[in-house]
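fyi for ur records
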Amino acid sequence: MEKTSFEDLFRKELQFIENHLPHYFAETSELSREGLSQLNESINYSLLSGGKRFRPVLSLLTAEALGSSPDRVLPLAAAVEFIHTYSLIHDDLPAMDNDSLRRGKPTNHVVFGEATALLAGDALLTEAFCVLAKGYRDRPQVGLKVIEMLAGATGLFGMVGGQGIGYVALGGEEIRRIDAKNSRTQNWGLDSCEL
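which gave:
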């Protein structure tokens, strides 16, 4: 049996995620209204802009290591990436970090305006839980557990709470100076392995 390096496994799962993500917010006739079309474009601009995709890939690799099909955790992997992308869009807004570049490209609010960027982040957060509800419809107990776990890891006592603590502690200035090991970035990504 040929040994596969971690890097090869990571690349394989990364490609799986990259191929899968565009299906969630594909252009359809339902998006023909101007506001929806622009909002969808804004979502895809950030969601499909690349990145390490560490959290969803970790979910897929964990599933494989435990002998489970990647399809079993694909809704969770997508939801985790939606939430991560939403957090980046909101972090870049003028009221937060006020960044104009992300991954060498203009940030979402620079391209689409603050209101559309805010709504794109909101839509990604909401759609994350919709993907979970639909993805685990045939296994409702798993779905409820995953939704509870992800909401807890990203809500008031998770990522968003960590941002709030940092915002107050720094007087609203330069939130990104917060230690990268706090709940904002670390804990919820590792929770994605529990499925």
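Residues 146 and 195 are 7 Å apart (CA to CA). thats all i got for now
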